[in-house]
Amino acid sequence: MQSDFLKYEASSSQFRHPLFYITVLMTVGFFSSQFWPETPIFDNVEAFLPYHSMLEMFSVTVSLMVFAIVWNSFNNDRSINLIFIAVTFLAVGVIDFFHSFSYFGMPDFFGENSTQKALIFWISARLIAAIMFLMVALMPWFNNSYENNKYLVLIGGVFVTGGVLLSGIHYPQWYPVFFVDGYGLTDFKIIIEYFIVVLHFATVALLLTKKDAVGVNFIWFACAVWLMALAELFFTLYSSVSDLYNLAGHVYKAVAYIMVFKALFLASITRPYKELEQRSVEKLLLTQYAVDNSGDLIYWLDYDGRILSVNDAVKQKLGVQADDMINSHIGRFESALVPDSWKQLREQFSEHHQLVLDGVHLCRNSEKFFSQVRIVFFKYRSQNYICLFIADITERKLALESLARKQEQLAQAQRITHIGSWEFNLESKETVWSEEVYHILQADEKVVKASFNNFLQYVHSDDRQRVIDHYQRCLTDYSPYHLVHRLQLLDGSSRYVETRAEMQRINGEPVSLIGTIQDITKERELEDQAYHDPLTGVYNRRFLDENIYSLIDNSVIKEQNLCYVIFDIDFFKEINDNYGHDFGDRVLKGVAEYLQRQVRDSDFVCRFGGEEFVVIFNDIEMPSGMERIEKIRHGVGNLQFINQIDDIVKVNLSGGMACTKIHGNDAKQLFELADQALYSAKRSGRNRLKLCDKSSLD
Ligand SMILES: Nc1nc2c(ncn2[C@@H]2O[C@H](COP(=O)(O)OP(=O)(O)OP(=O)(O)O)[C@@H](O)[C@H]2O)c(=O)[nH]1
């Protein structure tokens, strides 16, 4: 892009303009006038009259043209000073018209003509012009433009003009005498002429200090006023109206008016027009630049799909000369717009004005790329135009395909591992569930909307509060979330799931909560089997061995007392021997169930082996806790088991116990001490509970 095109070049060639040379020549002419012959060049006034009328009519015409052009082209962008000049020329033109027709020798015009009458109009016009030009040169040229004010200026101008004309015609006696028959010009007239000259010189001096503004060429304007001043000086020099000085004065004035006309025509018409043209060219070039560098291939088509024009991108991308493409059908290059489907497509985009299609675009060397075609249809001056914007979406398409493949792989991996993923966007509050989440919940993707509240509907009622608490905590302190809980599905089945979540951050700012949910029902079942006694369903020894340390640690952290109690069924061998092994099993089950029922959720019942049970009582204070344990032990003694012959069989428990707050936090030692206490209970006659004697520690 050529930056020159964008730069408005202000004309600085005024000094090289012929009008400037004319001004210089005429100035030289003026100063050489003392060498001019003083003899009249016309035989008499009548002979001069046609030339005078001609020159005056010329000046009048130019004056009125100045007014017409400036007045009609004026708008708020221009300075109101232009209107002052225009109205001045209107006044001067009209008054000069009267001057011309009042000239001595002309047919009477609104009363008897005379040199004095003609001079009244002449001096008035010159004085008005001189004062107004000086005023305009003094007035600021910026920010004073108000379109409506032009009428006020016009009214003022008409008022002054009307005043001069009416007074000049009807009350000439109001004016000083400018001319005396047989004597010639009065001193007053000459003084006035000099005064006008002084005003003009002052105006020229002021104008030369001004820089070009609002399109006005002040140099030309100054030249014009300068020539007007010289014209006035000629009028002070002449001795006869028919001599060369008088003629020169009129000629200088006419040239000066042409110069004003030229300056104001330039300001009002030429400059604004050139600026407009410049802006249009700029706009066109910028548009062309944008079109060629937009990255899209742009085609202009006629209504039948034939190529009218293309942008540079098409030529570069396709490696085809524009001339080779013109008039070809677009279907030659774009698979989405083949001639066969053109009519049908045309109906669609004619109706909707826009259409977006995916296709394949053909380059010259039979290379292809995936394209997205945006068809824009519009009418201009009842002509149909179609513009195509074709983007190369090969990379996007391949990326999308790869993304789709990866998503499918992820979904497959989730299906295999039974892990679903979910995301909660903190800003949009939107939740997204993967396919596998729906699968785990046995929910229909089309019916159930992904949300935490909807998820809660599937959470087992006993676990719901726990899930809510974890979720809320994660959202408030952004801590990771890990929870195993049950689901209660709509078909009534329950599942175990393990959920994990953590906050995703971008530039340190939390953005969304990303989580997984894994169906661990099978693992959980296996785990249950590994940690539970198959006969009684309570925990087994393995569970106890693996968990006793953390249970004790927990009680230490919480500064709570933990009791390790070993219960042993008294004379269980006899039960087996007397009623059979199956009956013995029933007794073991019954005792286990009873113990499980009596303890709190935080306590653990384990079958240690044979007819021995270990119960871990958490958070139990002594000695009151001992009463509770004793009560449970008693309760077992009240259980009734019916044997094969419907006899009631009862069993008793012996128990030995040790506590962390009395016996220390060593798991192995606690077991040994409880076992010692049990042994002691057995030896003391069974059916009793014994707390390990503290002295045995020593
Ligand atoms: N029915 C049944 N009996 C079992 C099971 N495990 C161990 N036993 C029996 O439990 C009995 C334990 O007997 P002992 O260790 O002599 O103890 P006891 O007869 O209860 O006598 P004390 O403990 O001294 O009161 C044995 O006869 C084992 O066969 C089981 O799973 N089922």
UniProtKB/TrEMBL annotation:
Reaction catalysed by this enzyme: 2 GTP = 3',3'-c-di-GMP + 2 diphosphate
Pfam families, alphabetized: GGDEF, MASE3, PAS_3, PAS_9
Domain GGDEF: 560-694
Domain PAC stretches: 481-532
Swiss-Prot/TrEMBL keywords: Membrane, Transmembrane, Transmembrane helix
PANTHER family xref list: DIGUANYLATE CYCLASE DGCM-RELATED, REGULATORY COMPONENTS OF SENSORY TRANSDUCTION SYSTEM
Protein name: diguanylate cyclase
